[in-house]
Amino acid sequence: MDFLALPKIDLHCHLDGSVRPDTIIDLAKQYNIELPEDRDAVVQSLTVPEDCKNLDEYLACFSLPLQVMQTEEAIERISFELYEDAALENVKYLEVRFAPILHVNKGLSLDTIIASAVKGMKRAEEKYDIKGNYIMSVLRMFPKDSIKDVIDAGKPYLGKGVVAFDIAGGEKPGFCAEFPEYTQYAIEQGYRVTVHAGEQWHGQNVYDAVTMLDAERIGHGVHIQGNEDAYNIVKEKQVALETCPTSNVQTKCIHQFSDHPIAEFKKDGIVVTINTDNRTVSNTTMTNEVKRVCETFGLTKEDYAEIYKYSVESAFASDEVKQHLMGFVEQI
Ligand SMILES: O=c1[nH]cnc2c1ncn2[C@@H]1O[C@H](CO)[C@@H](O)[C@H]1O
Ligand SMILES: [Zn+2]
């Protein structure tokens, strides 16, 4: 298979984890933000170390990108460049997520932050054969008082570049009990819901995200393995798992790539999708993820076509966009 030429879909990609290192250097100079001594050191600070111990250490790599992502221009540019990078490797549809509340440090309003991200995406959609949507993330460990503000700020963009609500950040057992009020509010406003769960252990969180938070998709979800209730509900309800295999190995959620359950899940009828999580932090691309999954688990073109179709079916896109994306299946 020519993995670069294959049509691809990425449903789980963080904006702040996917910034080009050269853009960070450029913007840091412009804004007088202190940088590590040379380009290699910058790349090193942005990319997860080999000996990363866990998800919390992985999340430390977001500190420098977030420092430069505090102006309209920076957010618009980074959004455009992410869609451009994806388009150039034949990603046909990309849902990008980020937490608007992490971008208010220099006084931007939530509205301006979301508008800038959507504007960059639209500029790329005009230039390239790619379509996209944004997902508004909130962080589990952050104070809850701004969550409804984020949901309200994204509301005017629903159907115009924003589609869904997500909960991200370090994972604790039982976190879902704190969030039904917020996912319910988001659903009432017209958002779709996906939740990071079952990433760092805790399969029970997946069950809770589906039953308590009405999550339609789950970010990662690999740890439904070993939790019968979680496994069964994901299978019965055909809840799509947004798996990000390289990221899961880096955060030590999975011991090694060949231990990833994606192929086993697929064989058993679970809806699995292949995604990047963070192109820069995880030092990956969709081409790399699809190649590693297909080669490690011996997946055929037909298997990949099925996974591609799962991604189309579980995308938070309009029917029109989904139909357009189904048109690429014959290129697989
Ligand atoms: O794999 C992940 N699991 C949980 N949270 C994550 C992951 N990758 C990134 N973020 C968190 O999401 C925020 C918004 O994009 C990032 O700043 C990071 O803290
Ligand atoms: Zn993620």
Automatic annotation (TrEMBL):
It is an enzyme of class 3 (hydrolase). The active site is at residue 199. Substrate binds at residues 14, 16, 169. Keywords: Hydrolase, Metal-binding, Nucleotide metabolism, Zinc. CDD domains: ADA. It holds the Pfam family A_deaminase. This is Adenosine deaminase. Zn(2+) binds at residues 12, 14, 196, 277. SUPFAM superfamilies: Metallo-dependent hydrolases. It comes from Photobacterium pectinilyticum. Binds 1 zinc ion per subunit.
